[in-house]
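Please review this one:
***
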Amino acid sequence: MNKFLRLTSLAATVAALALTAAPAQAASLVSATPVAKAKVKILKGLTLTSSSDLDFGTVVLSGAGAWSGDTVSVNLAGVQACTANLTCSGTTSAASYNVTGSNNAVVVVTVPASVTITNGVDNLTVTTTKSIGATVTMPNSGNTGIDFEVGGSITLASTTVDGFYQGDINVTADYQ
């Protein structure tokens, strides 16, 4: 009888659990709203080339006595100008560049505000000017790109050491 009670009790327990247990629910499948998109914008590689240097020509410190603050400059058209205590000659040019890239893409062009040039020992500072804005929109991809120039000026004094001065103008271009 003990065995019968145990089996009956076990059967009653299983039946009670079966009646009170909630059936397992399958997880509902949901989708994101709105649906995410996969995107990419492909741009042609930028090219930036220089075709001429910023050349101030030849400058003679010709003023008498001590003086300072005189300038030699080359404008964006490559025309040289000198102030009172300087005699200027020779072939001059503005630096010329060309940038190409993808149609309608905005490009940031960076020209340093000043450049240091040196004769190996002494330095001079070139203050630059440019014919291009900080950003440009590239023309049709079949186009030859955008040309721009960099001019500048150098302030000299009677104490400026003679010699051949040169340095790099580090112009850069990058997509915005």
